[in-house]
Sequence to fold (292 residues):
Amino acid sequence: MHEGLIIKGISGFYYIKADSKIYECKARGIFRKDEIIPTVGDYVEFSISDEEKLTGIIEKIKPRKNFLVRPPVANIDKLITVFSVESPAPDLMLLDKLIIKAAEIGIKPIICINKIDLSPNGFEAIRCYENAGFETLFVSAVKGIGIDNLKEKMKDKVSILAGPSGVGKSTIVNALNINVSVKTGDVSNKINRGKHTTRHVEFFEIESGGYIADTPGFTALGIERIISDKLKNLYPEFQENVNKCRFTGCTHISEPNCGVKEALNNNKIDNGRYERYIEIYKTIKENERYHK
Ligand code: GDP
Ligand code: ZN
Fold:
């Protein structure tokens, strides 16, 4: 039995990277019966049908450490949220939602700020994320600044990029140097085009190690499924102050004697981030009421 990683799946065919080769495989019928569908990102065991034609059959899917439903990808290590210092200005609401989304999948986000060449000092609002302990990275994809650092963080991991259009995601992917020797189908074409018309997920292998999942359609959608009372736990900067809250279940919104609000008044917690927390909380709460 051989082991490999599904890097692409198209209409019942799975492309498995194993020992620097790519095998075109079909899945055994048993998966469908168990309602487990092999997914890009799955580590699998497969048997080789024809070593010359590089074809095989997937026999077993290894347990997944996480799973993203839309678009379907398994075993993601890093979510890299991409924004730019300017053109367009960072959408911090989207950033906060992507951080929540990462927590929902169970992965740590890296906040990557591109186009640092346009504004070398970055921007003030990013401070609160740094202070809260989030990993932040300033890069310029066109000038090549910070790209080695980014590669280092992605080394031997499976990462996905997320962020609004125009922030430079395609430019970053190009700057990472995709290993063209293992490209499948029209990969290089697709990268160069920068825009994606297809909806399936595909992995690109980075020369320096690791994979980047091309995830068209990845958004912060679905965070309203998070339980409203759990939302506050996803804000590390709140956690440092909850021991001062009078009520154990304090949501830090309207309760008296709240440690988080005290920290807010002492400028220890960023006002913008707190206000966006309330807005997200209300959206989630409304959604819960609606689905009761
Ligand atoms: P995407 O929509 O997120 O994939 O963004 P693109 O990669 O298509 O980039 C959008 C625009 O920003 C293009 O005109 C790029 O040339 C430009 N761009 C990308 N990275 C940088 C950068 O580091 N600095 C500057 N000044 N422009 C950049
Ligand atoms: Zn509180």
